[in-house]
Amino acid sequence: MKKKWPLLASVVASAASASIAALGYTISNRVMYMKQKDEQFIWNREVQSNRLDEDWFTHVAKESFIVQSPNGYPITCHKIQSTTSLNTIIILHGVTETHINSLKYAQVFARLGYNIIVYDQRRHGKTDGKTTSYGFYEKYDLQAVVEAVRSQMTHDALLGIQGESMGAATTLQYGGLDDTLFDFIIADCAFSTFEKQLHHVLMRDTPIKTAYAVKLADFFIQKRDGYTLREVAPIEAVQKISKPILYIHSLEDTYIPHTMSEALHAAKPENTRLVLFEKGEHAQSFNEQPFDYEKEIIKFLVDFHISYLPQDYQFPQKKRRTRIIQPA
């Protein structure tokens, strides 16, 4: 009978190890392979909610060009030529979205005298890439796009970058690599560190109420995708950025809490501004208060002496916005 105890212990240990491995694999899968939204669904959602003026988009001058990612795939960039000026803004979407989601900001920047460039981030839309890494690999894609765009601009032309959610985190991480080629950043609802963000989501959305789950996910992500969660840390990157940054967040955001933007701002408050809107779930600040959002962008650009309103600028007339309920 005594001889069975070592065997039983071995079986229990093996079962526990298998369960832990399965949990780590499952969490890392969820992180790396989050389900994407259909591009046509995004287009219909933006048009129906009046965030994308289909007639304006149809008639505005557009062109596409290819940038080769250092990660090994082509990135198709879409340029909206809305002004004779060379001033340009690159806009990055968040996780599960595509460049179509970025177009809701296009008319804002067109009114402000900027051309607009959007593209699908890694493993989104028509851009290849095995995994989503929340800025770790994506920042090098953005670096390649910035270099390509800047090479076609005059020295005195302005180049800004706006990111939403993962796009904001990507933008800040790129800025920490090199802030010499762009003039300003607008970071809408960025997370401060991916380690804290994953912990928050696991606590909020799953029955896994332990910090060990994050450590387990970190181990599997490092083995499977080549980076650690601690390496995805916008809060460290912002301390290396000297260019002006506008942080935007909504107080109702429960996916990425507004305290993360507050932490980013506090990490290096010099030459930065934090705007907190009362309304809006995650990445909904513009959707809930588009006119106030545009006013805050204008104030940022003017107050930080980046650019001024074009002489023909006209503040948009308020339109009724249809609330679109997104499926889970």
Automatic annotation (TrEMBL):
Keywords: Hydrolase, Signal. Coiled coil: none annotated. InterPro entries: AB_hydrolase_fold (IPR029058), DNA-binding_regulatory (IPR052920), Hydrolase_4 (IPR022742). Pfam families: Hydrolase_4. Residues 1-21 form the signal peptide. Residues 88-185 form the Serine aminopeptidase S33 domain. GO terms for molecular function: hydrolase activity. This is Alpha/beta hydrolase. It comes from Kurthia gibsonii. The lineage of its organism: Bacteria, Bacillati, Bacillota, Bacilli, Bacillales.
